[in-house]
Every structure is written in C-alpha cells, then in structure tokens.
Amino acid sequence: MVQLSTPISEEAAASLQVGDTVEISGYILCGRDAVLPKVLKMIEDGTVAELGVDLHGQVIFHTAVSPAGVGPTSSNKLEIESSIAPLSAAGIKLHLGKGQLHPKTIAALDRCNAVYAVIPPVTALLGAKTTEQKVVAFPELGMEALHLIKVDKYPAIIGAAHGRSIYDQDL
C-alpha cells in the first residue's frame, strides 16, 4: 500500500505504477460534469488563483459532495474526461474516479506526469474517511459545486500511469 499525502510531488507521481494500491490523505478537490468546465475556463482566463487553492500537486475526485456522502462518478463522461489533460497540465497530479479512459487521455496523463486512480463506489467507507468539507467555488451548483475535502487514507488503485491502463488486455 502506497501512502500519499497532498500535495503530491512530481517524484511521488512518477513512482506510481498501474495496479498500485494507494491511500490518499490530505486535502483534495471534488468536481464533476457541471463544475469542471468552469474550472477550465478559469485556467484559460488566468483567474484560477481566485479559487484560493493551488492546483500544483493537487488531487481531483470526480464526484459530487452531498449529505449522503461522496462516491465516484464515471470519469469517461465527456465533460470530465475532456478536463483531465488540461487539469493535468495545470498541475493536478492524480485524478480519482471510475471507468475506462480513452488512450489519448492516458497519453496526456503520461505527458504531464499525472495519474488516474479508480476508486470503488463505496460511499459509506469514504464518508467515514472524510474529515472536513467546504465549497470552494460555484455554490449555486449545490452538490456539484467545486468542493475541497480533507481525507484520511482514501483507498484507490492506480488505473492509468506512464501510458498504460489497467484496462489494457496485456496486463
């Protein structure tokens, strides 16, 4: 089990391999379909610093935050998967979600020394490992706003790293 703390260093990201099991501790961002295009617009406009969160070394969990807890959404939804390359270029080191990514997305992760980890849909387990949460931006989106949560030993499996995916047939 690889212990990761946020922010994730370049060296830590480079050391992760497909199939590694990790536990993530520290603050991570949560966002999905509704908010990720807004964050990308802020990156393009040069206003992303207004979030008050440094994206370098950050983790983003493809989820909404609701009273029921958090659980992964499909990372291969158009609005989510299309955000992975630009968010990685902006400094995100680890994307958490579920589902198979396209080869071009896996290649983009590799170019940015970023990785993708799948997390099982276990809302109750993750709720017990979430110790703080707050809305960072776009509160009008409710549970789909951009949230910052503090986690303790979030379990995940590295699903794509260094141009490879756990969904590849040759593993």
Query: Which structural category do the helix and sheet elements fall into?
Result: alpha/beta
- Number of beta strands: 8
Considering the protein shown, what is the CATH homologous superfamily? Fe-S hydro-lyase, tartrate dehydratase beta-type, catalytic domain
Q: How far apart are the termini?
A: 19 Å
Q: What are the low-pLDDT stretches, counting only 5+ consecutive residues below 50? A: none
Number of separate structural domains: 1
Largest sheet, order of strands side by side? 2-3-4-5-7
Q: Strand percentage, roughly? A: 25-35%
> Residue-averaged pLDDT, rounded?
92
Query: If you consult CATH, what is the topology?
Result: fumarase
Report the CATH C-level class: Alpha Beta
Q: How do the helices and strands follow one another from N- to C-terminus?
A: EHEHEHEHEHEEE
Do you know the CATH architecture? Alpha-Beta Barrel
**How would the global form be characterised?**
globular
In short:
The protein is built from 5 helices and 8 strands, in the order E-H-E-H-E-H-E-H-E-H-E-E-E. The protein has helices spanning 10-15, 36-45, 78-89, 103-111, 123-128, and strands spanning 2-5, 21-30, 59-61, 94-97, 115-118, 130-137, 146-161, 164-165.
Written account of the structure:
With 171 residues, the protein is of the alpha/beta class. The protein has a single domain, classed as Fe-S hydro-lyase, tartrate dehydratase beta-type, catalytic domain (fumarase, Alpha-Beta Barrel). 25% of the residues lie in helices and 30% in strands. The chain contains five helices and eight strands. It has helices at 10-15, 36-45, 78-89, 103-111, 123-128; strands at 2-5, 21-30, 59-61, 94-97, 115-118, 130-137, 146-161, 164-165. It has a five-stranded mixed β-barrel with strand order 2-3-4-5-7. The longest helix is centred in the middle third of the chain and has 12 residues, at 78-89. It starts with a strand and ends in a 6-residue tail after the last strand. The mean pLDDT is 92.
